[in-house]
């Protein structure tokens, strides 16, 4: 079974308990591939991966082909992607901005907040340099770069603040989740979700050891101190399994997207999860 995830440290951390053999599933060999988030979103739209990390903002577009998983989720809570520019720069109403992909959560929120901005999309690893070189006026940083950006740059606005204005409350910001193809037999899908959930839980329980192994093998792009801070932001105890507040946040994101014409229907996350009760009914 191939698991597709992004190359950022939180996704690596949440998967690698499987890669290192700490967690497994009888009769199943797991393999992984790491690709940038927009590539993952595009391939989910094309139905190319059976299990894949996606941006939450993408999900309503793939709801007929994929179910949402409850685990390996990343939310912002008082933090998130950052709109950055060169220090001292004044942005015009129609400033040119680099975003990490059309279907990312940050792209949807940005386009709602800045309808006159001229948007260009690029790999998230290229955005900082594009701002520094003047190729664009601003960019939205995601992943580890929110902690490591160049000293010549400054934050124009936090995506968290935009989210709070649009969501109207103290809901966490839904960024990344996992989706599984509906063509997978339900009993198998339930087992896959359980295995992935266990992997995230084991990773959290052994955070220090797993982090050391990732650093020793150069599997992450940041140093130990930054990794520790980053994991507490995006691969924390609330990443193991969705809670009620997170469901409310995802539903609010979908509501905002529907209101602004990004989706063709208003959907609720709870209606698109794997029905784990099937396993209990099957054996009752």
Question: What would you report as the Rg, rounded to the nearest angstrom?
Answer: 19 Å
Order of helices and strands: EHEHEHEEEEHEHEHEHEHHHHH
CATH superfamily of the largest domain: Periplasmic binding protein-like II
Which architecture name of the largest domain does CATH use?
Answer: 3-Layer(aba) Sandwich
Global outline: globular
Share in helix? 40-55%
The total of helices stands at: 12
Give the number of DSSP strands: 11
How far apart lie the N and C ends?
29 Å
How would you sum up the major sheet?
6 strands, mixed
The proportion of residues in beta strands is 15-25%
Tally of domains: 2
- Which stretches are poorly predicted, pLDDT < 50 over at least 5 residues? none
SSE class: alpha/beta
Q: Remind me, CATH topology of the largest domain? A: D-Maltodextrin-Binding Protein, domain 2
Mean pLDDT across the residues is: 94
What's the CATH C level of the largest domain? Alpha Beta
Written account of the structure:
It contains 12 helices and 11 strands. The protein is of the alpha/beta class and 284 residues long. It has 2 domains: 184 residues, Periplasmic binding protein-like II (D-Maltodextrin-Binding Protein, domain 2, 3-Layer(aba) Sandwich); 86 residues, Periplasmic binding protein-like II (D-Maltodextrin-Binding Protein, domain 2, 3-Layer(aba) Sandwich), CATH 3.40.190. Strands 1, 2, 3, 4, 5 and 11 form a 6-stranded mixed sheet that branches. A 5-stranded mixed sheet has the order 8-7-9-6-10, sandwiched between helices. Helix 1 crosses helix 8, helix 1 crosses helix 9 and helix 4 packs across helix 7. The longest helix has 20 residues. It is globular. 42% of the residues are buried. The model has no long low-confidence stretch (mean pLDDT 94).
């Amino acid at each position: 079974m191939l698991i597709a995830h992004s190359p950022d440290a939180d996704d690596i951390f949440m998967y690698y308990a499987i890669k290192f053999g700490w967690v497994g599933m009888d009769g199943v060999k797991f393999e992984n591939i790491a690709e940038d988030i927009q590539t993952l979103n595009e391939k989910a739209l094309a139905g190319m991966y059976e299990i894949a990390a996606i941006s939450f903002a993408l999900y309503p577009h793939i709801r007929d082909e994929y179910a949402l998983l409850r685990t390996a989720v990343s939310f912002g809570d008082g933090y998130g992607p950052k709109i950055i520019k060169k220090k001292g720069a004044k942005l015009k109403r129609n400033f040119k901005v680099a975003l990490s992909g059309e279907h990312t959560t940050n792209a949807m929120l940005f386009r709602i907040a800045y309808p006159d901005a001229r948007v260009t999309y690029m790999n998230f690893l290229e955005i900082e340099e594009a701002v520094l070189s003047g190729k664009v006026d601003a960019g939205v940083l995601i992943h580890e770069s929110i902690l490591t950006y160049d000293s010549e740059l400054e934050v124009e606005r936090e995506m968290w603040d935009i989210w709070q204005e649009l969501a109207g409350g103290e809901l966490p910001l839904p960024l990344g989740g996992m989706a599984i193809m509906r063509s997978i037999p339900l009993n198998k899908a339930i087992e896959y979700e359980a295995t992935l959930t266990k992997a995230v839980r084991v990773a959290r329980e052994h955070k220090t050891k797993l982090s050391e192994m990732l650093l020793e093998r150069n599997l992450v792009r940041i140093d130990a101190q930054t990794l520790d801070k980053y994991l507490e932001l995006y691969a924390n105890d609330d990443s193991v399994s969705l809670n009620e507040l997170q469901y409310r946040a995802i539903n609010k994101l979908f509501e905002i997207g529907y209101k602004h014409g990004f989706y063709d229907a208003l959907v609720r996350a709870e209606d698109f999860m794997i029905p784990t009760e099937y396993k209990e009914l099957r054996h009752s």
